[in-house]
Design a protein that fits this description.
Elements: H1 8-16, H2 37-45, H3 51-55, H4 63-76, H5 83-93, E1 101-103, H6 122-137, E2 139-142, H7 144-148, E3 162-163, H8 174-186, H9 190-207, H10 227-238, H11 241-261, E4 263-268, E5 271-276, H12 290-297, H13 305-317, E6 344-345, H14 347-366, H15 370-391, E7 392-393, E8 398-399, E9 402-403, E10 408-409, H16 419-423, H17 431-441, E11 466-468, H18 469-479, H19 485-509, E12 515-517, E13 523-524, H20 537-549, H21 565-580
Antiparallel strand pairs: 1-2, 2-3, 4-5, 6-9, 7-8, 9-10, 11-12, 12-13
Helix pairs in contact: 1-13, 6-20, 8-9, 8-10, 8-20, 9-10, 10-11, 10-14, 11-14, 14-15, 18-19, 18-20, 19-20, 19-21
């Protein structure tokens, strides 16, 4: 039924990625930003409240000089450097975070994009205008020295300016940028989107994949693969077929990375199915969370530490860093040390790739390359069969992550379980209506402030009580594809709940957040490894998507939230009464 199971520590020892193996060097060789004694000493001394701060600091001089000075400092102190000495060393050898960036107002920003006029509710229209204004606040471009002296920065040079998430995130991120781009296109800013797309394409050309974000310490891992979808949205908006033609091979190269480096074979009923997983074959702590990863490793056997670090990186690659989705349980179900991301076949990743394969087939057909179009049509057909055979549960009406070791599906609720609807990777039109029943059965429609990330409160940020903008999208626009008025109405009510949460929090705090706590009314979210961040790129983009889609229906004031399944039926009945009256 499933492949042979091996202990994770043994998998790594068999050649899947210890740092010490010369055959597989880490993509980032920096002995300052990625590994080495200096990184270890500074991060374990906890000079900063957030480990990310140190690895985002530019150097004040060449790295060789920094390393030589550090070596001499260590030697003079018999490798027992005090915290004060470390602080003084960092102050003299590093610059403040963000020095290599400057604010940037997009040239194609305009004061009043057309979609604003469609929004019926005056308060929501005024709020949408403020969200549109935020693109100017979140715009960044790199100073020339990043190009001229790349070894003095953890930031990877990007030719074109870009929109960042906000807060501690001063670089651009892979999957975040999809929802940012959707919002930018609604704001009629296609040139900004094209520049951001070109930055991603350049990363693929240089590294063979898109890193988690454009920092050297992210090079070991990617993030959910949405580049092909980004291209489709841009080309659909701007009809820029020349740009597509110029870059189709780069899109192909990125999908090859997932096909070759993140593939997994699962057997069922005598058939082998080829799917994908998140998997990072490198140990070592994450530089931006170094002290936390070191401390967590202290809770497991020494032989298991490299495997644990590799699994944490795979969890970061998933975008869900971290979640009960990836925990394997044991006596304490919520222990992060039980993380086994690479031993799951995720619904969302395979739906994203299925969607990309469909788009690539479409692109190649448009460009007149029928051989490549056929290749991607066949890949999509194979993946559709795999999704149904391995991940779909007919009785529950949803797809579920598959546990490679147990050979079973993970029965827990996650919004990602409905990603195939959003991605258009299902064959039965009734699946969307089955998904609505799945949401009802799990009482998801009773949450008034947003769709929870899970129903388990582990203290991790990708679990209850947090709700995230992209996960709202996976469910809302997935349900909205149904021909059923009832399912479409459910999508609208979920959109209304989320917009009201965003709007109410913004009204109180004048800020948008990366995540929201939906347990006792809408509040900024919490949990995880750092304080909740303001900004916020994908939250802004998702709000604009919903404000545009339901522009004539969304309201800012209080009204009954969707709480029970029969609410939909009543709503639909009331909506038809005027037609029934004489």
């Amino acid at each position: 039924m499933h492949e042979k199971t091996w202990p994770l520590s043994l998998l790594l020892l068999l050649g899947l990625g210890l740092r010490s193996q010369q055959a597989l060097p880490p993509p980032c060789e920096s002995q300052i930003y990625c590994h080495g004694d200096l990184l270890h000493e500074v991060q374990m001394a906890k000079l900063f409240p957030d480990d990310k701060q140190f690895v985002d600091m530019p150097l004040s001089m060449a790295p060789d000089k920094v390393l030589l000075d550090f070596s001499e400092l260590a030697k003079a102190n018999n490798n027992n450097i005090s915290r004060q000495q470390l602080q003084e060393f960092v102050n003299s050898h590093f610059q403040a975070v963000g020095q290599e960036l400057e604010p940037w107002t997009p040239e194609d920003w305009k004061d009043s994009p057309r979609f604003l006029q469609k929004i019926s509710d005056a308060k929501l229209r005024a709020w949408a205008r403020e969200l549109h204004q935020l693109w100017r606040k979140l715009g960044k471009k790199m100073k020339p020295e990043v190009l001229n002296h790349p070894d003095q920065f953890s930031l990877i040079y990007a030719e074109h300016p870009f929109i960042v998430p906000g807060g501690r995130f001063l670089e651009f991120y892979y999957w975040d940028s999809y929802w940012v781009m959707e919002g930018l296109l609604l704001s009629e800013m296609p040139e900004t989107v094209k520049g951001m797309l070109q930055n991603f394409l350049n990363l693929v050309t240089t590294y063979g994949h898109i890193p988690n974000g454009n920092r050297v310490y992210y090079l070991q891992r990617s993030q959910p693969p949405l580049l092909t979808l980004m291209m489709d949205r841009y080309v659909t908006h701007n009809s820029d077929m020349a740009f597509l033609r110029e870059n189709i091979m780069t899109l192909d190269l990125e999908l090859s990375f997932w096909a070759e480096k993140r593939n997994i074979t699962v057997s069922s009923g005598g058939t082998n199915y080829h799917l994908n997983r998140y998997y990072v074959p490198y140990g070592g702590p994450r530089p931006e969370s170094y002290s936390k990863d070191e401390e967590l490793a202290g809770t497991v056997l020494a032989d298991d530490r490299e495997a644990l670090w590799a699994e944490l990186k795979a969890g970061a690659e998933s975008g869900w860093d971290f979640s009960s989705r990836w925990l394997s349980g044991g006596p304490n179900l919520d222990l992060l040390s039980t993380i086994r991301t690479s031993r799951r076949v995720p619904v969302d990743l395979n739906a994203f790739l299925c969607q990309a394969e469909e788009l690539m087939s479409k692109f190649y057909t448009i460009l007149g390359d029928e051989a490549q179009a056929t290749k991607y049509r066949n890949l999509r057909a194979q993946r559709m069969a795999a999704l149904k055979a391995i991940l779909w549960d007919e009785e529950k009406g949803a797809w579920f992550d598959y546990d490679i070791d147990s050979g079973k599906k993970n029965p827990e609720f996650y919004p990602s379980n409905l990603t195939p609807l959003w991605a258009g990777c299902y064959s039965d039109p009734a699946d969307a209506d089955k998904a609505l029943k799945y949401l009802e059965d799990n009482q998801i429609l009773t949450y008034k402030y947003g769709i929870p990330t899970s129903l388990r409160n582990t203290g991790q940020q990708w679990d209850y009580p947090n709700a995230w903008a992209p996960l709202q999208d996976l469910v809302i626009r997935g349900l909205a594809k149904s021909p059923s008025p009832q399912t479409q109405e459910a999508a609208f009510q979920l959109a209304q709940n989320w917009i009201r949460t965003n709007f109410d929090v913004y009204s109180r705090k004048l800020a948008m957040y990366e995540k929201y706590d939906i347990s006792t009314g809408g509040q900024p979210g919490g949990g995880g490894e750092y304080e909740v961040q303001e900004g916020f790129g994908w939250t802004n983009g998702m709000a604009l998507i919903l404000l545009d889609r339901y522009s004539d229906r969304l309201t800012s004031g209080a009204q009954p939230a969707l709480q029970k399944p029969h609410y939909l039926a009543v709503t639909l009945l009331l909506s038809t009464l005027p037609n029934l009256l004489p």
